[in-house]
Amino acid sequence: MTQELTDLLETGVQHHQRGDLATAEAYYRQVLALAPEHPDALHLLGLIAQSNADLALAETHIRRALTARPQEAMFHYNLANVLRDAGRFDDAIASYRTALRLRPDDADTLLNLGGALAAQGDPRAAVECYRTLLRQTPRHLSALLSLGQVLSTIGQDSEARVVYQTTLDIEPDHYEAHLGLAVLSQEAGKESDAQHHYQAALRANPNFAPAWNNFGTWHQERGDRAAAAECYRRALTLDAEDARAYNNLGALLAEEDRAAEAEACYQAALQLRPQFAEAHKNRAAVLQALGRHDEALASLREALRLQPDFPEAAYKLAALSGERPPASAPAEYVAALFDGYAKDYEQHLTSTLRYQVPQALFELWTQTVPGAKDLDVLDLGCGTGLSGAVLRPCARQLIGIDLSPRMLALARERAIYDRLLEGDIVQLLAQERAQFDLACAADVFVYIGDLEAVMASLARSLRPGAYLMFSVEALETGEYRLQPTGRYAHASGYLEGLAGRHGFEPRAQRQMTLRVEQGRPVSGRLQVWRRQP
Predict the structure, then answer these.
(1) Distance between CA 423 and CA 400 in Å, rounded?
(2) What is the dihedral of CA 31, 33, 39, 40, to 10 degrees?
(3) b/e map of 469-504 (b: 16 or more CB within 10 Å)?
(4) Three-state DSSP class for residue 435
(5) DSSP-assigned letter for residue 498
(6) 166-183: per-residue pLDDT in tens?
(7) What does the angle CA 248 – CA 301 – CA 474 come to, to the nearest 5 degrees?
(8) Among candidates 357, 352, 384, 529, which has minimal Cα distance to 458?
(9) Residues 35, 8: contact at Cβ < 8 Å?
(10) pLDDT recorded at residue 520
């Protein structure tokens, strides 16, 4: 390289380092005027193009640099960064791996390769990358944080917790590690631990928008909507392009029946992130509430186009359109629905919806079987324990089953159950050897269309002569139907056929209004069946 080229390149680099990209580019182009395939000038021009978000030009420059100097690890590394920024993760991973072959111990390459692998959908390979880097540099904070995040996404929560705590042992005010521990604690139902780490993250960095957003979800789950809204708005003040915060604020407003405001939030989220399937699904619910049926269907279809394995969106589309309804609601949908509902569940049911099904069922049963006591009782879909409180006086043993861990946590606080089981009714009953004298399913079968499997399980779990009492929403004809509300209705003829096939004898029934929803009564039936001796 001539001295003139050296001087021009060095002057350009000095301006580049000071952030004067236009002047740096002028000097690099002077180099190329003298030496058109100068690899360093081409590479540096590629970095400027990347800074200016012209990724196609950046790729062109760096590939020309590699043609002149194919064994330069830094060129391969920066090409990978450009390809990653363009969303071409497979190509980026290949370039990172080439850079690593040329420079095996480079920490930045290992770190970015891990990030690309995680983004591509190969989290376990990402974990191995981060672990390789940490074997070389055990106190590498970025690698520790990234490892914790990936471990959390693949469900290895205990390992993620250890990694985040290791990060805090090195840097006690590491706000991102505090956020990681807060989220894990919140998901595990450890509310005080979650609060501690959210507050620690925000003390360390009051301008950390993700912590405000997630702290909002913590407040929302506890039923403090005002504090949740304040957190979401703080997040959006700090980061006006936070689509998740708009989505969360929309969900909060939807819970308060402020559908038009919620829809505006979802629209804002989708303008920022059109591929946000969750926001499309949420927007559909408020569009339905606003009477914009066709738009709601379009939003659900878009959510499924973006995320084909989205059970809740598929279920809601079936409910709203009547197309290919499933035999029951997806378990993960029901669990998430009631997890989010847990704190306000009883107040909303009894005050807003005027729900009295457990009391009415128990009254119908005691009229049919007066004076029964010391029974082994099964409370299906026990929720927070509304039915359990009614059933406890006649129970020797009371067992509750529910899909929602947060509902079960509240039921546990009631201290009325002898055992609480989390999971699917049919699967849990298959594992239980106990025999029961009475089973209650208040507002449970509304999430199960085809009742054959659950009735077969109950027939095996109830002693001869035992009783089953349950509620259903009323359907006049047919067997069962998934309604636009997302709940199933069942016809009397279908229930009579079920009883006969599974060895039950209907003993009593009553029609009643199960709830008042959006000012309209929901008609249903209460049933008391006896297991044939």
Answers:
(1) 11
(2) 20
(3) bbbbbbbeeeebbbbeebbbbbbbebbeebbeebbb
(4) coil
(5) H
(6) 999 999 999 999 999 999
(7) 85
(8) 529
(9) no
(10) 82
Residue 77 in tokens: 């590394």
Cα dihedral 133/135/136/141 (nearest 10) = 60
Give the pTM. 0.80
**Cβ neighbours, 10 Å, residue 196:** 15
Q: How far apart are CA 28 and CA 357, in angstroms?
A: 78
Structure tokens at 33: 């005027």
Nearest-angstrom CA–CA distance, 128 and 80: 19
In one-letter notation, the amino acid at residue 335 is A
**Lookup: tokens for 424:** 């699917």
Tokens found for residue 430: 């298959």
Token pair 């449970």 is at which residue?
A: 444
Amino acid at 110: L
pLDDT digits (tens, 9 = 90+) for 106-161: 999 999 999 999 999 999 999 999 999 999 999 999 999 999 999 999 999 999 99
- Contact by Cβ (8 Å): 94, 88: no
Tokens matching residue 195: 């609060």
Whether the CB-CB separation of 442 and 383 falls below 8 Å is answered with: no
Composition of the chain by helix, strand, coil, percent to 5: 65, 15, 25
CA dihedral in degrees (20, 21, 25, 27; nearest 10)? 20
